[in-house]
Design brief:
Length: 154
């Protein structure tokens, strides 16, 4: 009885963490089938429910399929990939930037069983970074123009 209660409390704590953390948590197969995901992952990727999220293959979310292949290669070589920024497409067509941190779960022979990790939507940070870059470039252009001597008038 005590062991069952302890197990039940442990499951409640795990589910509370998994469902409540403000980052998208996932588990996927090497083929891209989503095995598990939390509500924040559904929200980030634009799915209305966890069920809809679990019905899709993650490969459809990548704007460039080569990005997923590159990520998989890094995961297989390194075992862990941190802050892999990539563009993803929501079901409504909106493109977002995410930062993906994950690890490969391998068996005793070193074969990848699944990937698990987290996604964070960094779209707003990317937008602000691009705005700042354009502002700095424009400021340098204005500074260069001000440094040039005016043409003599005729």
């Amino acid at each position: 009885m005590r062991a069952e209660k302890s197990l039940s409390q442990s499951e409640i704590r795990y589910r509370s963490l998994f469902d409540g953390v403000p980052v998208g948590l996932y588990r996927t197969s090497p083929e891209g089938q989503l095995l598990d995901g939390n509500p924040e992952l559904a929200q980030i990727l634009g799915y209305s429910s966890r069920e809809d999220l679990l019905a899709m293959n993650t490969e459809v979310t990548y704007v460039n399929r080569e990005d997923r292949e590159h990520w998989k290669a890094l995961m297989e070589q390194e075992g862990v990939v941190s802050y892999f920024e990539v563009q993803m497409r929501k079901p409504n067509g909106e493109i977002i930037w995410v930062s993906n941190t994950g690890r490969a779960v391998k068996d005793e022979e070193g074969q990848v069983l699944l990937y698990e990790g987290c996604l964070v939507d960094v779209t707003e940070q990317k937008r602000k970074s691009e705005e700042l870059k354009r502002y700095r470039e424009a400021s340098r252009g204005v500074g260069r123009a001000a440094d040039q001597e005016p043409e003599p008038s005729q």
